[in-house]
Write a structure and sequence with these properties.
It is built from 29 helices and two strands. It has 681 residues and is mostly helical. The protein has two domains: 51-279 and 300-342 and 363-430, Na+/H+ antiporter like fold; 439-680, no CATH class. It has a two-stranded antiparallel sheet with strand order 1-2.
Length: 681
């Protein structure tokens, strides 16, 4: 039960952090999540909480990086192999060497092997932390691609260097040949295992689909379990499980066209499930960091303030050395920051360079601008992967407490906090903010879009009125408007008058008898004026002691009526009355709907939609109408095409921006998926 409570509290903390960020988005979401974790650490269940690195890598990091791999642009990735090697391998080695030598020079008591272990710990960058801090900023595409490529693949470099440093410290031996061998097995082996098993798993999933097993209970769980399985396979085989998860995710991303053969139901559920999982795990990363930090600090309780302040200053120095290494690497052009976006200008440049490989190499290795190099340097953000590596240092070696373990963990925590704080303060000053879409304007255009589509449906005289009105009622819900009760009552009274006029006309033309007109009018009056108070008064009149005689009289009349129905004359009259009641109901429904079409305006649209829905439900219940789903689906698709056309016209006339058009089109697409899902069910 303790594990259940812990997970539940972590979920609550992540949700609360998201709520607070929604109200006050000035501070990056990561800091709210860390703050939530710090508050959780006050609870007894989280006292002296320890993060287990193996479980953290498997349960949280593997699915996160697998999803990042799925979302990776293959075209851009194929052009970035050199950049990946430069940033994830060579820059990682240079940073580890530079930070290790600097740390040894300042902290002379720290063994050189442990200085390199510390450097390896702070080498991996965190894509989750980076995306959290830059979520509201316009990062240039070529810089965003470089940082994403680096964070996806440099974890393995840091882990390999870290393991080699620990082995060198515990055994006293270090072999360059063994180091290169271990690096190749971990790095290249992880990629190879991820590619092989990624293709194997995609073929298994395709086989499920070909065997008509593309249900949410088969394909979706299989997709979710894939990163965990591939991570474990790679780790068992002595390679990097992280890189295996990334490579498998890329393979799954390549195979998306094949996986689109799944049904709409599976696509919707799989997409929504993955989105929920990723959002939850992203929150877990920083909440766990906040929960763990107090334990890290408590281990320093026996240290003097002079030693703690000295370690803190050393942490600042280590961060600055790392910053300088990244800046110089990018400034000299070794980060290969040539724009790799899909813009027309970039594509034109790529075509020119493709014809001249020598010119392409020169272009890729040209010095970067100071601004680009500075952004690359300050965006070297570290997160929970760094902390988990620090916590994975053994507690003891040869039966003796591992030396300098608390110092290394504290220094890693200082670097993590600085790497989060610096870009949070600096990047908003040098990068433009993402233009926010005005929700009120979008709501206005959405309402106009729906009105246009509804008017197109009203002009369709060939569509059955019941099906047409059902689709109109569905479309109006896109506006998400609340109906005014007074306006609804006013329109209801007007529709009752329309119904009465219809009955009078039918009676005057001898299409129905006066008795049928009275029955219909009485029924409509009850249905439009029903309330809870009227219902309770009805119960009292029916069951009160004063009305027992009336109830007895009613039972006698009911018995006589049943005898009358069983006679031939009674059956003939019942059949005639039933036909006339159907005639009256159809005429009332048609005239009321036409009246609602006439009086509908932008001001009373919500109230009219409410009344329209009432008469649709009532008509279907009275006539026992069977829904014509094919006809309604056809009308609904036509209506959505009208909405797409309306948005395209607005954009073509430069009345809305591309971002606004994308949001409107996205809402139409989402509504279509929801509607088709409801029909398929």
């Amino acid at each position: 039960m303790e594990i259940f409570y812990s997970i539940a509290l972590l979920v609550v903390a992540a949700v609360i952090a998201n709520i607070v960020y929604t109200e006050w988005p000035v501070v990056p979401l990561a800091f709210y999540q860390i703050g939530s974790g710090l508050l959780l650490s006050l609870l007894p269940i989280f006292h002296h909480y320890t993060l287990y690195p193996e479980m953290f890598m498997l349960v949280i990091i593997a699915p996160l990086l697998f999803n990042d791999g799925q979302q990776t642009n293959l075209k851009r990735l194929s052009r970035s192999v050199g950049q990946i090697i430069s940033l994830s391998v060579f820059l990682a080695l240079v940073t580890a060497i530079g930070v290790g030598l600097f740390t040894k020079q300042i902290y002379t008591a720290l063994p050189l092997a442990l200085a390199f272990a510390l450097a390896a710990i702070i080498t991996p960058t965190d894509s989750v932390a980076l995306s959290s801090i830059t979520s509201g900023l316009q990062v240039p595409d070529h810089l965003d691609a470089a940082l994403e490529n680096e964070s996806l693949f440099n974890d393995a470099s840091g882990i390999v260097i870290f393991n080699l440093a620990l082995v060198a410290f515990t055994t006293g031996n270090f072999s360059i040949a063994n180091g290169i061998k271990n690096f190749a097995v971990s790095f290249l082996g992880g990629l190879l295992i991820g590619l092989v098993f990624g293709f194997l798993f995609t073929h298994i999933q395709s086989w499920f689909i070909s065997q008509s097993m593309d249900t949410t209970s088969v394909v979706v769980p299989f997709s979710i379990m894939t990163p965990f399985a591939i991570y474990l396979i790679a780790e068992i085989m002595g390679s990097s499980g992280i890189l295996a998860a990334v490579a498998a995710g890329i393979v799954f991303g390549i195979s998306q066209n094949r996986l689109k053969l799944t049904s709409t139901n599976v696509q919707i559920v799989a997409s929504a499930t993955w989105q929920i999982i990723i959002n939850l795990l992203n929150g877990f990363v920083f909440v766990l960091m906040g929960v763990t930090l107090p334990t890290v600090l408590s281990q320093m309780s026996g240290y003097s303030w002079q030693r703690i302040s000295g370690l803190a200053l050393l942490g600042v120095g280590i961060y600055l050395v790392m910053f300088v290494c990244r800046f110089i690497w990018a400034r000299l052009g070794w980060a290969q920051l040539m724009p790799e976006d899909d813009s027309p200008q970039s594509n034109s440049l790529q075509k020119k360079l493709a014809s001249n490989p020598h010119q392409q190499r020169r272009q890729r290795h040209q010095p970067s601008s100071v601004k680009d190099a500075f952004i690359i340097a300050v965006s070297g953000i570290h997160g929970t992967i760094t902390l988990s590596m620090a916590l994975s240092i053994p507690l003891a070696v040869d039966g003796v407490a591992f030396p300098f373990r608390n110092d290394i963990i504290f220094l890693a925590a200082v670097v993590i906090l600085l790497s989060l704080l610096a870009p949070s303060l600096i990047l908003p000053q040098i990068l433009p903010a993402v233009a926010k879409v005005d929700k009120e304007t979008i709501a206005q255009y959405r309402a106009e879009m729906v009105d246009y589509s509804v008017n197109q449906l009203k002009n369709n005289s060939t569509a059955p009125l019941v099906d047409r009105d059902y689709v109109i009622d569905t479309l109006v819900t896109q506006k998400n408007q609340q109906a005014d009760r007074a306006e609804v009552n006013k329109i209801l009274k007007q529709t009752v008058k329309v119904a009465q006029d219809t009955l009078n006309n039918l009676s005057d033309t001898n299409q129905i008898t006066g008795r049928v007109a009275n029955i219909t009018a009485s029924r409509d009056s009850r249905m439009t004026q029903r309330s809870f108070s009227n219902y309770f008064r009805f119960l009292w009149r029916r069951y009160s002691p004063a009305n027992r005689k009336q109830r007895r009289h009613f039972r006698e009349k009911k018995k006589n009526f049943q005898q009358f129905v069983q006679s031939d004359d009674g059956q003939q009259k019942i059949q005639t009355m039933t036909q006339q009641l159907a005639t009256a109901e159809n005429a009332i429904f048609k005239n009321v709907i036409n009246y609602l079409d006439e009086i509908s305006t932008k001001q009373n649209a919500a109230a009219v939609a409410y009344v329209r829905r009432f008469y649709n439900v009532r008509h279907n219940r009275i006539t026992n109408s069977v829904a014509n789903n094919d006809q309604r689906t056809k009308l609904f698709i036509q209506a959505l095409q009208s909405e797409y056309s309306y948005v395209a016209n607005l954009y073509g006339q430069h009345k809305i921006s591309k971002q606004q058009a994308d949001e409107l089109n996205q809402s139409i697409s989402s509504d279509q998926l929801v509607y088709m899902q409801s029909i398929s069910d």
